[in-house]
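Here is one chain, start to finish.
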Amino acid sequence: MMGQIMPLLEIRDLAVEVEGKEVLHGVTLKIKPGEVHAIMGKNGSGKTTLSHTIMGHPKYKVTRGDILLEGESILALRPDERARKRIFLAFQYPVAVPGVTVAQFLRSAILSVRAGEIEPKNVRKLIKEEMGKLDIPDSFMTRFLNEGFSGGEKKRLETLQLRLLKPKMMVLDETDSGLDIDSLRRVSESIEGARGTDKSILLITHYQRMLSYVKPDYVHVFLEGRIAKSGGADLALELEERGYEWLEGGKAAALN
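Its structure:
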């Protein structure tokens, strides 16, 4: 008999505080290699808290539970150490960094996360090749990181980072936020291109529209810091039709 496939990322009964207030109240989730899990929910339901906690943001304090990557706890690891373990977080609102060019940032990130894989002399060529695939102009490289960038430009740059850093666990926090239809399609197609049998995606979104492009294996609905309901891709369509009120009305039963 074949053994069960170990989850790439496993979240066990996770409780998290932010500035003394508990925001997550016991989240449990298993994501196997090759799977795409979507998390949906209203603002303030805990979606972004989960993403930042996975990445190790110091503002988010784990008070109970664990996060495991390939069977090993990562709670003691700093964010940069988690990045070297090939966890990638795409932010809902990417931060501008005046004084640091896109080229400087990408080179530093690649040599840090993929140390030993790529010779420094080949980094420039690699970046240029991936930029070409995403139709990103060369002028991006001399601009300061995210400074003056449109929402679409920020998300395309994060997609470029995704392709360059080759993470195994991709956490995408509302990547569709602020995108027009064409930008959403381009970004989504690039995310689809990053899928693989050895990689997993946790996609956080408000709306079903992105899931029309990035097809999830599972959809989980967050409500007040817990997973209120899980299902297949059809659950996102149901939410689009019915909203979140139907879950809120029966939350006592849904949350056990």
